Amino acid sequence: MDSLLQEIKEKINNIKTLKELNDLKVEYLSKKGPVNELSSKMKDLSVEEKKEYGMKLNAFKLEVNSLFDSLKEQLENEVLNEKLKNETIDITLPSKKVKRGSKHPMSRMVEEFEDLFVSMGYTVYDGPEIESDENCFQKLNLPVGHPARDAQDTFYLENEYENYLLRSQTSTAQVRAMEEHTEKGPIRIVCPGKVYRRDEDATHSHQFMQIEGLVIDENISMADLKGTLELFCKKILGEKTEVRFRPSYFPFTEPSVEVDVSCFKCGGKGCNLCKQTGWIEVLGAGMVHPNVLEMSGYDSKKYQGFAFGTGIDRFAMFKYGIPDIRTIYGNDIRFLKQFDRKDVE
């Protein structure tokens, strides 16, 4: 046993691969191998000799198996390490840059406006962009041939749809809201959305976005309108903003006002943005005309209301310093990337 063990140790020390190890194991531990031959000699021994011989043989077999198992584990680890070395992925290499999306400035402004008015108890109302001439003009006190229609020249649909058009103002949603409100009680809504007019230059677009507000209830006065718009302007443009109301004319409101805010760039001192006046016009408003109330089924002697509307694009241009309205709709990703940073500022 001792000489055989020494022989196996010497051969194991020269083993370099798992195949060589397996061949050696077959050579010594197979049924016809020398280790099994030692077991066959048990039959020639006495009972006492078998006991002593069996103990030594078991110890011998355990040591031989341990030698083979130990080397096998060592060789398998070497194979695994070599494989890992050759197949390693270098995680320090720079990855492909994942493009990060950004909210459009118009989406940001709409969300900001809606959050403010919802906090004041308003409901957001949405109307269709294709409207009838009746809803877009006639029920807003703009009959056929009225000269004020020229300022809202829009796009009309041909043939059987000749009485339909792309809405020129979101006030059409107010008409629908009043008509759908069958109980003819109080209403407090804001209507954001796209509108269309035949304009296109640095400050005007054939498509732009408006938000309209409408409040109808008993005992509504001009003071309610002024308080609402002062709060709106200060929340959107800053608490230091001053608000000015100027008499104006709109067919669907009476009396009507234009609303100006102090220039946030120069603080009212005068600059190129406000054209040296210190004021910037931001929206139009007024008390709902009795004719508009009556055409939608409201009793103008019982109910009063106020309405206001502004271009969301205009506020976006003021807030983000956008010089040309056409870039808002230009689908340029480089233009959109900057607004996350500007909101943080």
Give an account of the 3D structure.
The protein has 345 residues and is an alpha+beta fold. The protein folds into two domains: 2-84; 105-344, Bira Bifunctional Protein, Domain 2 (BirA Bifunctional Protein, domain 2), CATH 3.30.930. The chain has helices at residues 2-13, 18-29, 34-40, 47-86, 105-119, 133-136, 171-180, 222-237, 290-295, 312-320, 333-336, 339-344; strands at residues 123-124, 130-132, 164-166, 187-196, 207-217, 243-250, 253-262, 279-288, 304-311. The longest helix is centred in the N-terminal third of the chain and has 40 residues, at 47-86. The mean pLDDT is 84.
Summarize the structure.
The chain is an alpha+beta fold and 345 residues long. It has 12 helices and 9 strands.
Count of discrete domains: 2
CATH topology of the largest domain: BirA Bifunctional Protein, domain 2
For the record, what CATH class of the largest domain applies? Alpha Beta
Biggest sheet descriptor: 7 strands, mixed
Low-pLDDT residue intervals, each spanning 5 or more residues: none
- CATH-level-4 superfamily name of the largest domain: Bira Bifunctional Protein, Domain 2
Compressed to H and E, one letter per element, the order equals HHHHHEEHEHEEHEEEHEHHH
The geometry reads as: rod-shaped
The helix tally amounts to 12
**Number of E-state strands:** 9
- The CATH architecture classification of the largest domain is 2-Layer Sandwich
Mean pLDDT: 84
- First-residue to last-residue Cα separation: 86 Å
Portion in helices: 40-55%
Widest β-sheet, arrangement of strands: 1-4-5-9-8-7-6
Alpha-beta classification: alpha+beta
How large is the radius of gyration? 44 Å
Strand content: 15-25%
